[in-house]
Amino acid sequence: MNHEARVHLSKSAREAYGALDAFAKTVGGLAAESDIDARLKELVQIHVSQLNGCAYCVRIHVDRAVAAGVDADVIAQLPVWRESGVFTERERAGLELAEAFTFIHEDGIPDDVYDRVGAILSEKEYVALSWVLVSINAFNRVAIAGRYPVPPRTGAKE
């Protein structure tokens, strides 16, 4: 196979990608029904995408976060959320859970994380946010495997 032109999983198996997209829509509905607001949903998806190194999904979810009213300062603080004062207690819980789901191979969801997050989020919110994290991790893998491009924006200065 030509490694210069990677297989685009979303184009090569549209039925599978369509199922993943439908799953994401279901998860988005579950989040909305569970009081996971757009700001929290987008912040955790940006952070997971940063942790996984998925530039494509970072761009998509930064755009969505901006549309949801999140400003550049808050987005810039995501990599240093533990040291930053710009995030609410709920957002901090979500970001901690995001890291646990992204690095789930290291220690599952550790008991201390589960307990801390569970003291802040209801069970319904925890479940909905967990599904958001499963979804974004799946999309990251599709985009990273295919090396989805992230070119400069039109009119961007070098």
Describe the structure.
The protein is globular. It has 158 residues and is mostly helical. The protein has helices at 9-12, 14-33, 38-52, 55-67, 72-76, 89-102, 104-107, 111-120, 123-145.
Q: Which stretches of 5+ consecutive residues score pLDDT under 50?
A: none
In sequence order, what are the helices and strands, one letter per element? HHHHHHHHH
Radius of gyration, taken over Cα atoms and rounded to an integer in Å? 16 Å
Q: Name the average pLDDT.
A: 93
Helix content: 55-70%
**Beta-strand percentage range:** under 5%
Global outline:
globular
Compute the number of helices. 9
Q: Note the quaternary state here.
A: single chain
Terminus-to-terminus distance: 33 Å
What's the count of strands?
A: 0
Class based on secondary structure composition and strand pairing: mainly alpha
Give the helices and strands, then pairings.
Layout: H1 9-12, H2 14-33, H3 38-52, H4 55-67, H5 72-76, H6 89-102, H7 104-107, H8 111-120, H9 123-145
Summarize the structure in short.
By secondary structure, the chain is mainly α.
Features:
globular, 158 residues
